[in-house]
């Protein structure tokens, strides 16, 4: 029996090791992505590998693997012999990418109204009310997490894998900017009102209405971000 247990352990050890490495990899990528989205690591910041390893409690190997993933997503830039920095989008890139995203969101809304199931709609409604609770508590991090999951669920409900792939890729580049667009209280409150209208249109299966709301919602995010960036670049008198 002991020999059998030994053999089982020998078989399972490499498998468990691989699973643990995959979990670590996913965790590190997600944590670094959150640092960028929530502004812990701001655009243009040079990433110090030693400090990040100490913060995350990991070695350099999983960190460097995670950085490669984020570079492929366009969230960081890696320059040979100079290390990695958080990507900084130009004003033109921001405007164009939000413009593209507004179209992707609108198309997602149209298709979702045609194809969403009762279960998917119920899940989105539950997320909506959880998001409202975060807003009432001024929990921006929690609010943003629920907010993005709502947009993501609408895209999934569209049932178009090609759209899904493009949407996910483009959205990753905008997440930190979408987060920052809520830093102004009035704009945050308006975004919540727009989400109320989104839910009503989705429940009514009104694709044109939902598409129009989503398109305008994203373009207003673009405008809020550009104003915020302009204010930050204006020198104090």
From TrEMBL:
<dbReference type="GO" id="GO:0003677">
    <property type="term" value="F:DNA binding"/>
</dbReference>
<dbReference type="InterPro" id="IPR000524">
    <property type="entry name" value="Tscrpt_reg_HTH_GntR"/>
</dbReference>
<feature type="domain" description="HTH gntR-type">
    <location>
        <begin position="22"/>
        <end position="89"/>
    </location>
</feature>
<dbReference type="Pfam" id="PF00392">
    <property type="entry name" value="GntR"/>
</dbReference>
<keyword id="KW-0238">DNA-binding</keyword>
<dbReference type="InterPro" id="IPR036388">
    <property type="entry name" value="WH-like_DNA-bd_sf"/>
</dbReference>
<dbReference type="InterPro" id="IPR036390">
    <property type="entry name" value="WH_DNA-bd_sf"/>
</dbReference>
<dbReference type="GO" id="GO:0003700">
    <property type="term" value="F:DNA-binding transcription factor activity"/>
</dbReference>
<keyword id="KW-0804">Transcription</keyword>
<dbReference type="Pfam" id="PF07729">
    <property type="entry name" value="FCD"/>
</dbReference>
<keyword id="KW-0805">Transcription regulation</keyword>
<dbReference type="InterPro" id="IPR011711">
    <property type="entry name" value="GntR_C"/>
</dbReference>
<protein>
    <submittedName>
        <fullName>GntR family transcriptional regulator</fullName>
    </submittedName>
</protein>
<dbReference type="InterPro" id="IPR008920">
    <property type="entry name" value="TF_FadR/GntR_C"/>
</dbReference>
